[in-house]
Specification:
The chain contains six helices and four strands; from the N terminus they run ααβαβαβααβ. The protein is of the alpha/beta class. The protein has one domain. Strands 1-2-3-4 form a four-stranded mixed sheet. The longest helix has 16 residues. It is elongated.
Amino acid sequence: MLTTAVAAQLADLAVKHHLPIMGWFPRFADWGNLMGYGVNGLALCRRAATYVDRILKGANPAELPVEPPTKFELAINLKAAKAIDLTIPQSVLSQADRVIE
């Protein structure tokens, strides 16, 4: 996706203009965004592997149920918060799955 390809540039622009920016994928926080929230990619891949296993064992793909993701992750980048003079409350930090110092 175009947005993921330029995520670091978007983060730099957000800091330059003192704007918080949040991505729909936890990795966005690694790329300099203030926060990233979304599906846990590892859990999603593991769940997909069970579908592949069932299909290889003869299950009809059209008959397999569609399952929504069940594990989500919140990542917060404190370095980005500091760059825009934003204090993240401890109550929010304690709910984060990952905090980037």
